[in-house]
């Protein structure tokens, strides 16, 4: 009786703790039951719940190939390879490789069928001609020659900027031990048959990071370079002669024209208007500094936000500025310093930080890009957005726009490392070019598009600098 009473009480306690007796079935030798994610039974309850949440289950990753959910751990846990960042990077790399494979197949077809043949039948439609040319561009690697064999191909490209004639490109390369290396590449050897360029480096200026660079026409067109960077604290603005980088004799190297310390510099621009001759502007933290390099006179305009993008107009002495706050405003540089906002002539607004602005030739329109991935064309006469170019990707990087009105094209590189080309006229996305290297923060391509790469008799196309390589996409 006591034994039976004890067993009955024990069963009730066992049942009260939520345990139930379940008969154990026979297992096949070597059989291991598949572990299910808690709450995801064989009936597909978690799949239905995930579909209601747009295919996502908090804390889990769904693998479509295995048709299973896997638990995610925080990104700092090195023992678990499944993190949201690693999953996104794996998906992006898979897409990039697939697009590169598709391009290789298309290039084989293009080599068999002459791309110029269909242009004859549509010669009256310029838009279709440009679209066909863009789609027929093929990537070829450029061989870079340098007097110092240890220089070429040793550091990653960060920025490339072409002069007005597109005869030279100024390069900024990241150095492994910190700082930047500057150089000039001569494009005169770039032709339809030859893919060789000459590079000259100056190894002296290697101690600062460069945020922005532009060509300056002081003694003659594109005679100097404006460099804005950080030499720890504070920053530094320098105006250097271009001959400094191509002089083979170190004793003949001219010194910098001007150099002064400033707060963190985000952008720079050179003025080509005669009414504000010999002036360059620097976009700083909450102010704009305009400097006359001959007289040394400076004008300061206070702003409510960091100035990330700048460009001077050529027909009027106006300076256009794009801010971190999303505001775009213009300044008449002939006026004296004023307090407040009364000196702002034109004011436009984006919803996110403006990273690049480009005036079109007639200077009635302005193209602007922001950190939300929006690219807008503004009519400066009405202060209204007239077009938007979809597909650009950006969240935090300062990325430039490249406008070629002669060919009617807009080019931009996204934070996802894809180069996209749009039609200026109807804002259609004509082509998306994947990067030859895996996408990463330090491998965003820098590009130049021109109808005359190498000068008047040069070749049209797209130059792409990524990692240690330089590529040419022919635009025939």
TrEMBL record:
It comes from the Eukaryota. It holds the Pfam family Beta-prop_DCAF4. Coiled coil: none annotated. Residues 1-43 are annotated as: Disordered. The keyword Amino-acid biosynthesis does not apply. WD repeats lie at residues 350-388. Keywords: Repeat, WD repeat. Residues 1-13 have a biased composition (Basic and acidic residues). InterPro entries: CUL4-DDB1_E3_ligase_receptor (IPR052254), WD40/YVTN_repeat-like_dom_sf (IPR015943), WD40_repeat_dom_sf (IPR036322), WD40_rpt (IPR001680). GO terms for cellular component: Cul4-RING E3 ubiquitin ligase complex. SMART domains: WD40 (SM00320). Residues 14-30 have a biased composition (Basic residues). PANTHER family: DDB1 AND CUL4 ASSOCIATED FACTOR 4, DDB1- AND CUL4-ASSOCIATED FACTOR 4-RELATED. This is DDB1 and CUL4 associated factor 4.
